Amino acid sequence: MRNYFIWGGGLASVIALASCAGGGEKASQKPLNIIHIMTDDHSYQTISAYGHALGRLAPTPNIDRLAAEGMLFRKAFVENSLSTPSRACLMTGLYSHQNGQRQLGAGIDTTKTFFSELLQAHGYQTGVVGKWHMQCEPKGFDYYHVLDDQGEYYNPRFKSLETNGEYVREEGYATTLTTDHAIEFLERRDLEKPFCLLVHHKAPHRNWMPDTKYANLYEDVEFPMPETFYDDYATRCDAARTQEMRIADDMTMIYDLKVDELKDTDAYRGERERGSWQASIDRMTPEQREAWMAAYGPNNEKMIAQNLKGDDLVRWKYQRYIKDYVRCIKSIDDEVGRLLAYLEKENLMDNTIIVYTSDQGFYMGEHGWFDKRFMYEESFRTPLIIRYPGKIEPGSVCDALVQNIDYAPTYLDLAGVEKPDEMVGTSLVPLFSGTTPSDWRKYLYYHFYDYPAYHLVRRHDGVRDERYKLIHFYGDKDEYNEAINCNELYDLQNDPNELNNLYGQPGYEEVTERLSQRLDQFRADLKVDEY
Ligand code: SGN
Ligand code: CA
Questions:
Q1: Nearest CA to ligand 1 atom 7
Q2: What is the pLDDT of residue 264?
């Protein structure tokens, strides 16, 4: 299938004008451009604007600048905390069971309209760079320069119209190269038309490989472990006990934690781990490999000499994991800064809305975990920052419940394009004023389907309101686990760490009934076909 279009094709130039409310004469005259920056697995805990302890130790000044000049969303969520499903929500404005992309490797219904197609048809120049990861070709883009599947950190392969859709290796670090291609799109654009550009970084996805220039950054910093690191899952359903995403048990010494020196010992978890790691190292140029080993070698030797065991080893794992992760974030932040500097130089800051988000949240050791998938806050939530001069008050904060199905309607709204009837998400534009409309959604629906699969997180759906969350885990017995049909209820106000499952506890009958009814209503209204 080749659904992409030729660069600069002559299309109707129905362009949206930025409204002049507070925007000044200059902004009102220029068409509105859209830049959607989306990282992969970036936790809000590691963006300093969110005020978390990790973000304070590893600051992100350029991303913070977007928040200082725009709006920080503190209750932004995904519908299905996994890459391809999340990207399908972004492109279609539909829930997973509606757009077909329920699991990581299966599904997109390509007959569904992508917002990029509608923007393109209304005169926007559209581009996507970096991690596309949809299970179909880029659809509705004049320009694409995308990574193969998850992409690689070093010397990754990209495909584009220029390579006739063939993947070609490019030398460099993924985060930098992705920004290069974003700037390339901007350089080549038709100055007469507005643009919409999706800048989708691979970082900080597993296995968290930093640029060699940052391989030693934060080495002497001790990052605090989250309060819930040693969660014993006492009040929960079995799902929390049977997952395979624990830092202590499931994070691997070689591929994840980069102790190359152990690859010929009993520490490696089999050929898959060794193979994945070897492939990452083999991709490097001799210079990159040398710089890499120069940074990791001495630190690894130091750790090996200590012969760490038990909890000491777990704590070392945590430090190595967080450090590599925030090293990747450092490059992301630099490259956001480079993109902003380019927009400034090109005088595009006034008439471009800039959105910063991630395809989902991530566990930074909360509940002992890495990865995502669960409906607990750290992975259900995602960072979201929007800068829109003249329309959004600098330094503002939004606490309305928003979700990744809302991006497509928002971008259509900003471009003055009517939202198709089937799109279920809601435009975020009314929130930009700083006041939440009284009829704004009071409940969010979540649904995770990717089981049995990597990390073995059971299927579940649920609802969340301002204060409470109800989760229902379901599934038959299989070769990995017993059958599950189990509920959890959390009071996020009194128990923000979600440690105390209140389902079935006396005193919670009313709230349980209310949330159960709402969950049933979502399932019926949205025609959900499994739960
Ligand atoms: C890979 C990772 C998993 C991760 C999925 C989904 N394993 O399979 O840890 O959960 O991607 O991530 S790895 O050994 O290949 O690194 S997602 O961001 O694409 O949803
Ligand atoms: Ca992801």
A1: 206
A2: 80
CB half-sphere exposure, 190, CA atoms < 13 A = 17
Structure tokens at 90: 């972004």
Distance CA 283, CA 257 (A): 18
State the pLDDT at residue 483: 98
Locate tokens 């359903």: which residue? 237
| Tens digits of residue pLDDT in 252-295 | 999 999 999 998 887 767 767 788 899 999 999 999 999 999 99
Q: Give the C-alpha separation, 256 to 271, whole Å.
A: 14
Whether the ω angle into residue 452 lies within 30 degrees of 0, i.e. cis, is: yes
Please give the Cα distance from 255 to 232 (Å, whole number). 27
List phi, psi (to 5°) of 519.
-65, -45
Which ligand 1 atom minimizes the distance to the CA of 82? 20
Q: Which residues line ligand 1 (CB under 6 A)?
A: 40-41, 82-83, 104, 150, 205-207, 276, 371, 454-455
Q: Which atom of ligand 1 is nearest to the CA of 360?
A: 18
Residues facing residue 195 across a β-bridge: 125
CA distances from 4 to 92, 143, 161, 296, 429 (A): 16, 8, 9, 42, 28
Ligand nearest to the CA of 135: 1
Q: Which atom of ligand 1 is nearest to the CA of 245?
A: 9
Residue owning the nearest CA to atom 4 of ligand 1:
371
* pLDDT value of position 268: 67
Phi, psi of 517 (to 5 degrees): -65, -40
- Dist. CA 122–CA 11, nearest whole Å: 7
CB-based contacts of 164, cutoff 8 Å, min separation 6:
none
Beta-carbon count within 10 A of 70 CB = 25
**What is the phi/psi pair of residue 6, to 5°?**
-80, 135
Q: Report the residue count for the chain.
A: 531
Could you tell which of 325, 454, 455, 457 is best to mutate to test the pocket of ligand 1, judged by most ligand atoms within 8 Å of the CB? 454
Question: Is residue 180 classed exposed, middle or buried when 0-12, 13-18 and 19+ CB atoms within 10 A define those classes?
Answer: middle
Q: What span, in angstroms and rounded, lies between the C-alpha atoms of 343 and 90?
A: 24
Which ligand is the nearest neighbour of the Cα of 85?
1
Distance 208 CA to ligand 1 centre (A): 11
Q: Nearest ligand to the C-alpha of residue 43?
A: 2
Q: Which residues of the chain have pLDDT under 70?
A: 1-29, 268, 271
Count of CB atoms within 10 A of residue 89's CB? 27
pTM: 0.94
Dihedral, CA of residue 492, residue 408, residue 178 and residue 52, to nearest 10: -20
Residue 126 to residue 123: CA distance in whole angstroms: 9
HSE-up (13 A, CA, CB side) for residue 415: 31
Q: Which of 16, 13, 12, 10 is nearest to 31 (CA)?
A: 16
Q: What is the pLDDT of residue 19?
A: 35
Chain centroid to CA 137: 20
In this prediction, residue 16 carries a pLDDT of 36
Measured in angstroms, how far is the CA atom of residue 175 from the centroid of ligand 2?
A: 15
Spatial contact of 80 and 106, defined as CB atoms under 8 Å apart = no
